[in-house]
Amino acid sequence: MVGKGSPKLNMIARASPKLLRFLGTTSGIKKKASPKCSKAKKTGGSPRVVKQRADWNPALEKSLVDILHEYKDSGYRGDNGWTPEGWNKMVKEFHLRNKYVNYTKSQIQDKEGQLKKDYRMLKEARRQSGATWNEDRHMVEGSPSMWDNLEITFPKIRKFRNSKARFPLFDALGELYDGHLAEGTYNLTSLEPPQEEAPLRTNS
Under a CB-based contact definition with an 8 Å cutoff, are residues 139 and 160 in contact? Predict the structure, then answer.
């Protein structure tokens, strides 16, 4: 055993600089490791939690459509849609009525665009031969072959083949969009009145 202040320990310390260097580096490693770990944990995923996912339900969709109806004749809407100022007012009104959600303007605009496309797809589905509209269930009913043909033009319409896929906003959206839909992907020649072709078939 060698005491703390013994001359023998002093001699070992003076004679072994490599040992002292080794002891110094190991203690330094321990001091450097802890701050890095703590910073990684603090800055890890905090910014990602800020954005709220836009989970829509029928009540929120109806609230949005109600607001769109209220603003459709307010001067904030043109042939190409609502003005930026109109959107700002509608988004503010939406949050006043639905205080438990905090969607961004773009999330609400995306939902409006989705509802417009869904309405247009179902409007076309109702025009198909053999299709019927179930007023009680608010959904299109038809044969599997009818749905197969529709999916060629509207791949996303398959979600409405589900027996639970109701769309109670169809009439409200019809009042909102008919006459205000621009030419685009969902405009088909089949939307023209079929009576125009009738005289051609009777001449024989």
Answer: yes
Whole-number pLDDT of residue 5: 55
User: Helical H runs in 16-154?
Assistant: 17-43, 58-71, 84-97, 105-127, 144-153
pLDDT interval class at 203 (50, 70, 90): very low
Q: Is the dihedral of CA 93, 98, 104, 108 positive or negative?
A: negative
Question: How far is 193 from 21, CA to CA, in rounded Å?
Answer: 93
Q: Does 192 score more than 80 pLDDT?
A: no
pLDDT in tens, 59-87: 999 999 999 999 998 899 987 889 999 99
Query: Which of 132, 94, 10 is closest to 86 using CA atoms?
Result: 94
- Whole-angstrom CA distances from 74 to 68, 85, 149 are 10, 11, 40
pLDDT at 108 over 90: yes
Residue 171 to residue 164: CA distance in whole angstroms? 18
Residues linked to residue 172 through DSSP beta bridges, in sequence order = none
Q: Where are the domains of the chain?
A: 58-177
Of 46, 99, 47, 93, the closest CA to residue 74 belongs to: 93
